[in-house]
Amino acid sequence: MKTSTSASPAAARTDHPSPNHRRTRRHLRTFTALTAGALSLASTSLPLTIPTAAAHAQTPPSAPAAGPVWPGPDGRPGATGRWITDPAGRTVIYHGENIVAKKAPYTPESIGFGDDDISFLKANGYNAVRLGIIWEAVEPQPGQYDEAYLDNIENTVRKLADAGLGTLLEVHQDAWSKRYGGEGAPDWASLDQGLPALPGGLIAAQFSPAVYQAVNNFFSNAPAADGVGIRTRFVNMWGHVSQRFASVPGVIGYSPINEPTPGWPFLLCQADLCPQPVVDRLISLNADVAKTVRQQDPRTTIWPMAYITTALGTHPQMGAPVDPNEVYPFNSYTIICNIGINLPGFVCDPHQRLNAARSREYAEQWNIPYAMTEFGAIGSPGVLTTQSRIADDNRIGWFHWNYGGPDHTTSAPSPENQAMVKNPQLPPTGDNVNTDNLTNTVRAYPKSVSGTPLSWGTDQNKVFTARWNGQRVDGTGSFAPGATSVITVPPALYPNGYTATVTGGRVLSEPGAMDLVIAADGPGDVNVSIAPR
Which pLDDT belongs to residue 214? Predict the structure, then answer.
């Protein structure tokens, strides 16, 4: 194993199916007992301690200003007010897939993700991937980094970039670590004082005393065997990762940790009553990661996520942004629709719209971009249509969960139910493609707009409409006449081709092109309508 050692510390998958319906319902029946037990154990747990961090203002500015465009060595996108923009100031929307290997060796190639899968994504109109890296794989021993693992991740990122797909790098975890039936933290950073762990995967982990205690010890910066705090090690790990990827083409962002759990106060946080010290310790962690990343990479956006409870509808409670170049990511699920039972889209729609609305409220409060970074761990294609439509209604991008491969911590009936490609070890063709998921998820979208997007969406007849004007989102004026915008039209939507009608601009691309290129006549509105032939 090629490893490197950190400087002195600064001040997964298996081939087994996910839990079946019967096991999931059994977990739900124990909810009341687990609730009482967790609250009782919480009263005797270690006290919460909050690492020192700079204070964050809790009130928004009276007149939020658009942030700067942050160009990078290969055209890094950046946050400009509520939009993500490229170095030319064009707004950018992402449609992506999640790629996460949850079992050792935790590499994309270990689940079969390779060149043919990248070609599949590109051919179906995707322009981004949310790629999970696993702390245990990056830092198998305290302060020692597995450079061969990071080389493998970098190779995937570069291949994606060569195909025109950006990569959002995120440290993924479910159930804290493999010790508790999930993946994420190394064993040396899973300190639980011998408290019992509840078996049963992701759902049970939310009520597990061992997980609660391990998370509390992490936020309290309890020392590992070498005497250095495990939270400190995590922050330093992000410094190493960002140094490695600061100049790698195609990186569009860093997300500190997926769905962090609040630990002992989980039930209070799920009731939208998260104690302020618990809120503050996640804000502090995100701030420290952002500060460490900025010492290595001053350009790439940072995507700090709120607690896992926000994925189930609670308010983000994130405080002020921890970085001027920040995007707010939210995962969108619901308790009622993520219990391993297929439910129709209209049942889930109100809950999912609430998730998006609360994320929008937070993003608008601080005038920052936001995006849906997970949806789809479910067995109902109709829900995928609902979620895609919600993203369109909110004028944001998304990353579907997930591309494919074994997933032992999913809430879907099986990994195949949620996948775009059932088995990435095989070519993404024929019956190996989950056609229902693909056609219910992919949509036409404005990949790049020279101006301000005003609306876009697809109706039940598969007619797509979009409208934008030529005003720059940073408020510095308008784009010149002839400035181009790109609407991506996935072939799966229109197998017999499409017709495009444009007012306020003209089409430059060839008929039927997947990327419909439109040049604006001037700074006024451009209207586009795309219909199947």
Answer: 98
Distance between CA 79 and CA 367 in Å, rounded?
Answer: 10
What are the structural domain ranges in the chain?
A: 12-51+65-442, 449-532
Q: What is the pLDDT of residue 349?
A: 83
Report the alpha-carbon distance of residue 448 to residue 517 in Å, rounded: 10
What does each C-alpha distance from 185 to 141, 172, 311 come to in angstroms?
Answer: 11, 9, 21
Cα gap 37→19, rounded to integer Å: 23
Strand, helix or coil at 130?
Answer: strand
Q: The tokens 């350009």 sit on which residue? A: 299
**CA-to-CA separations, 354 to 311, 387, 394, in angstroms, rounded:** 10, 11, 12
| CB-based contacts of 416-420 (< 8 A; 24+ apart in sequence) | 417/378, 417/379, 418/376, 418/377, 418/378, 418/379, 420/97
CATH code assigned to 449-532: 2.60.40.1180
Q: pLDDT under 70 in the chain at which residues?
A: 1-2, 6-74, 338-345, 379
Nearest to 390 by CA among 341, 360, 356: 356
DSSP helix/strand/coil, 156:
helix
* C-alpha to C-alpha distance for 400 and 87, rounded to whole angstroms: 26
The closest of 481, 476, 479 to 504, measured between CA atoms, is 481
Tell me which long-range contacts 517-522 makes (C-beta under 8 A, separation of at least 24).
Answer: 517/484, 517/485, 517/486, 518/484, 518/485, 518/486, 518/487, 519/482, 519/483, 519/484, 520/450, 520/451, 520/470, 520/479, 520/481, 520/482, 520/483, 520/484, 520/485, 521/481, 522/470, 522/481
pLDDT recorded at residue 379: 67
Q: What is the DSSP string of 32-64?
A: HHHHHHHHHHHTTSPPP----------S--SSP
- 335 touches 352 (CB < 8 A): no
Angle, helix 230-245 to helix 147-162, in steps of 10 degrees: 40
CA distance 251 to 159: 11
pTM: 0.89
Please report the pLDDT score of residue 405 as a whole number. Answer: 84
Architecture in CATH of 12-51+65-442? Alpha-Beta Barrel (3.20)
* pLDDT of the residue at 34: 41
Tell me if residue 155 falls in helix, strand or coil. helix
Q: CA 176 to CA 212: how far, in whole Å?
A: 9
